[in-house]
Amino acid sequence: MTTNVQYLEDMPMDLIRIDTRKAYENIHKKITRLELAPGSVLNDQALAEEIGLELKTVREALSLLAHDGLVTFSEQGMYVSEINLAELEQLSELRLQLETFSARLAARRGSPDDLAVLEALRSEQASIAPDEMERLFDLDHKFHQAIAAASGNRHLARALEQLFGQSQRLWYLVLPELDFLPEAVETHLSLLQAINARDGDQAASIMHAHVKGFYDKVKTILSADDR
Fold it and tell me: Greater confidence, 205 or 166?
């Protein structure tokens, strides 16, 4: 593959060519929603034909996805990165620290506009029926994105967004057994109250428990599947 991977990795997504972004988003969705299963071999030519884009464009997208940890290159070829307990542990360790820090900063730095966005998302989430799991998950993601934006640290927000793809795969993997997303509505209310009160310690504590609870339940489900 001749793509300049480092060049692509260093570029913000909004500066990458439209076709490359389109290919990235298409393949990203297939991977995170498990249409392309963990461990499955990737055929760049077949993907290019399926998506209707040039082979070079698809290869650029695959390079970006490799940087995100969703695609793995080896001497044998390209494949969708595996999901396992070891990967889960590493992912949860990092996301716990970054999400907690993000909530603390949001409580300190969040502007009135940031707080208005968070309230709008929380209200929308509260209006969704508990069985509309995909909509709840989508709004949970947007809520976390808004907190990261309110932190005022774009590098932190970018790092968290990169980790989200891995977390999304975990969610889809355990979706049939997942029953706790509706609880996030109440947690988000408490979190927003702490951010509104400029209580960084409380916001960090709530966020830590929120993210840890998700990973603990995913770990329990994956551990049971391994037996």
Answer: 205
Give residue for tokens 């929120």: 210
The number of domains in the chain is: 2
Query: For the whole model, what pTM was predicted?
Result: 0.77
100 close to 107: Cβ distance less than 8 angstroms: no
d(C-alpha 98, C-alpha 106), whole Å: 12
> Looking at residue 205, which CATH number applies to its domain?
1.20.120.530
User: If you search the block for the tokens 């940031």, which residue do you land on?
Assistant: 114
Answer with the one of 40, 55, 80 that is the final residue of a domain: 80
d(CA 115, CA 193): 10
Averaged over 195-219, what is the pLDDT? Answer: 93
Q: How far is 112 from 83, CA to CA, in rounded Å? A: 39
Domain that holds residue 31: 5-80
